[in-house]
Design brief:
Blueprint lengths: L7 H11 L35 H4 E4 L4 E10 L11 H15 L13 H6 L3 E10 L8 E8 L12 E9 L14 E8 L19 E10 L5 E5 L4 H15 L6 E3 L4 E4 L9 H10 L6 H15 L6 H11 L4 H4 L8 H13 L6 H9 L6 H10 L5 H8 L5 H13 L5 E7 L7 E8 L6 E4 L6 E5 L9 E5 L4 E5 L5 E9 L2 E10 L2 H9 L17 H13 L6 E4 L4 H5 L42 E3 L6
Parallel strand pairs: 12-14, 13-19
Antiparallel strand pairs: 1-8, 2-3, 2-5, 3-4, 4-7, 5-6, 6-7, 8-10, 9-10, 11-12, 11-20, 13-14, 15-16, 16-17, 17-18
Helix pairs in contact: 6-8, 7-8, 8-10, 10-11, 11-12, 11-13, 12-14, 13-14
């Protein structure tokens, strides 16, 4: 996702519809000063695999989570918001909003924008925004952010709202007063709020609070977060030698490594590893410091010998083969057909990652074999490789007997923009450049399946283009203002919409009794087309998938509803109470927010529509 430089249009649109506005301020922070020389690193382990590698000469640091926090407004809440706001945060938001939107934004009555009036509106809520930036993140890295109404405020729910752009600063749990809203800017965030629709049901019970939500893929880093390799020996020559070897292997421009001092080397994640910075760190530390051909050949022979021994660390050895580069292929090829399934997998994985086409059938067969111990990781390797013959193998896996394998294949084909996956994006009603829901229709012939993402992007995949909504069907939720109905044997479904965002609609949408059409009508903006017909109900992603869950319970959808295993709670950690010890219900001047508790997941770039109408996204040429 990219954050727009000019958000005044969004604010103006919200003012016109709801008498509200938005938030963004500040410049990117200065580069961090060089740190003092690090303390001497303990001696390397005696692991023979590490001998002569970068990992034997140093150790990685700064691998922990970097927590970031900011404050902003969620708009579009009808009467469910609150005017409550601690003084320090209110002053900060007024200053930020006035600087960015005051001079150029007016309401429907022609009056100039008033930040104070917007904060005081019941249609908005002041929120805390918290996220985690992973180690090695490049500038522009995308991550989920947690959004929560401030404790003690009257906000009832933030569901269906839109988080206005805000800055995320380094998290200081001890901050108070103005320190809550000052500090170095690390990232920015904005986007539609996702509130868990499965509250109180199993794994979803932990996020049952409607005042708490997540913007899926809503955070974007403003600067890179490099990792440091601390040298075990404080030596300029060693640091320069490590820098040279890493850059020779992974890139000189921009440099993948920089010898900042005699004590440490900075590792900058290359563009091709932007989605997998940990993978880059593994390869960089597995790299041989010396590159003499005869020496490398000798080490490759040693590693093959180590790999065949009982209890070998095959994960590490595979990374070392991969770190060497294509020179290693001839040495590992004989292991592809080894009788040991693990040795066969890890050697073929290294070969496939190095571009060896002869490894593809080996990995492909593993991915297609039910019960194979490495079936799932083999399918992931097929999905990540750029070798074009992998596409046909992935397409075949769309009809596999294992739904996890089918989803991996679908995501791989979607990333490659293959013709087996057609994508439709529906914009958010309050900001047409934000994606409300993206629907992928997968050309599969296996059992019908509906896959729902709960991290990184608001995305639903339908396996089977003609998956129907069975009739008769009746669903009604007064809270949502939506009713879905169809009589027996009807080939059309009627969606009645009472109101959206506090505005009466009182109209009906008629669509074919197909799942893709029903989802589209629920998610599309509540505007009218040229014939004055209502386009959509404008429901947010969380409500759309909540309705799908209810329809599945009624057996109106003849497909399994599969939720992404990594839930938002697992990704970001539960939002704990951050009231003061004496029991103050408000942040006031000294509020604290708890740290997040788990790693941020791998991220992909945020989808955007750029159009008011739902858009089918272009597919690749196929293979």
């Amino acid at each position: 996702m990219r954050l727009r430089k000019n958000t005044a249009l969004v604010v103006g649109a919200w003012l016109a519809a709801l008498a509200g506005a938005g938030c963004e301020s500040g410049l990117f922070a200065r580069k961090r000063p060089l740190p003092p020389e690090p303390a001497r690193v303990p001696a390397a382990s005696t692991d023979p695999l590490l001998v002569d590698t970068v990992g034997a000469s140093g150790t990685l640091s700064e691998l922990g989570e970097l927590r970031v926090r900011g404050f902003s407004l969620v708009v579009g809440l009808g009467e469910d918001g609150s005017s409550d706001c601690p003084t320090v945060i209110r002053d900060y938001l007024i200053d930020s909003l006035t600087k960015n939107f005051g001079p150029r934004t007016t309401g429907p009555d022609g009056q100039r924008f008033s930040a104070g009036r917007m904060i005081d509106s019941r249609e908005s809520a002041v929120v805390e925004v918290v996220g985690v930036v992973r180690p090695g993140a490049a500038r522009g890295d995308v991550f989920d952010v947690r959004v929560e109404a401030l404790p003690g405020t009257d906000t009832r729910t933030i569901e269906g709202g839109l988080l206005l752009p805000c800055e995320l600063r380094m998290y200081d749990i001890g901050a108070s007063g103005e320190a809550l809203v000052t500090g170095r800017i690390i990232a920015r965030a904005q986007g539609p709020i996702f509130v868990n629709p499965f509250a109180g049901s199993g794994e979803g019970a932990a996020t049952a609070d409607p005042r708490r939500g997540v913007v899926l893929g809503g955070g974007v880093t403003s600067e890179a977060r490099p990792v440091r390799l601390l040298c075990r020996e404080s030596s300029y020559s060693l640091a320069r030698r490590i820098e040279s070897r890493i850059n020779e292997r992974f890139g000189q421009n921009p440099r993948a490594a920089e010898a900042v001092s005699r004590g440490y080397v900075q590792l900058n994640t290359p563009a091709r590893f932007a989605e997998e910075p940990l993978h880059y760190h593994q390869l960089a530390t597995a790299l041989l410091v010396e590159d003499n051909p005869s020496f490398v050949d000798r080490k490759l022979a040693d590693w093959v010998q180590f790999a065949t021994e009982p209890g070998a660390n095959l994960e590490r050895i595979s990374s070392m083969w991969e770190a060497v580069g294509r020179t290693a292929i001839s040495g590992v090829q004989p292991l592809y057909g080894h009788s040991d399934a693990s040795l066969s997998y890890y050697s073929a994985r290294a070969g496939l990652r190095l571009g060896d086409a002869t490894a593809l059938p080996v990995i492909g067969q593993m991915a297609a074999t039910p019960g194979h111990p490495h079936r799932v990781p083999a399918a992931r390797e097929l999905a990540r490789t750029d070798l074009r013959p992998a596409i046909s193998r992935l397409a075949a896996l769309l009809d596999a007997d294992d739904d996890d394998i089918r989803v991996i294949a679908y995501e791989g084909l979607a990333d490659k923009r293959h013709a087996t996956v057609r994508s439709f994006s529906y914009p958010h009603a309050l900001d047409r450049e934000q994606v409300n829901v993206r629907v992928d229709v997968v050309d599969a012939r296996g059992k019908p399946l509906v896959y729902v993402r709960r991290s990184r992007a608001p995305r639903i995949a339908i396996f089977g283009a003609t998956t129907p909504v069975l009739t008769p069907v009746l669903f009604s939720d007064p809270r949502l203002g939506v009713t879905i109905s169809a009589s027996t044997a009807a080939d059309e479904v009627t969606i009645s919409v009472r109101e959206r965002y506090g505005r009466p609609v009182n109209d009906r949408i008629h669509v074919p009794a197909r799942l893709i059409d029903v989802i589209g009508a629920l998610a599309d903006i509540p505007d009218r087309d040229s014939a004055r017909r209502l386009r959509g109900a404008g429901l947010p992603y969380s409500q759309v998938i909540g309705i799908l869950s209810k329809l599945a319970e009624q057996e109106a959808i003849p497909a399994r509803l599969m939720l992404e295993q990594a839930s938002v709670t697992e990704q970001l950690g539960p939002a704990e109470d951050f009231r003061r010890p004496e029991g103050d219900e408000r942040i006031r001047e000294t509020g604290e927010s708890p740290p997040l508790e788990s790693e941020a997941p791998p991220r992909d770039n945020r989808d955007r529509t750029g159009d008011a109408a739902p858009r089918q996204e272009g597919a690749g040429d196929g293979a």
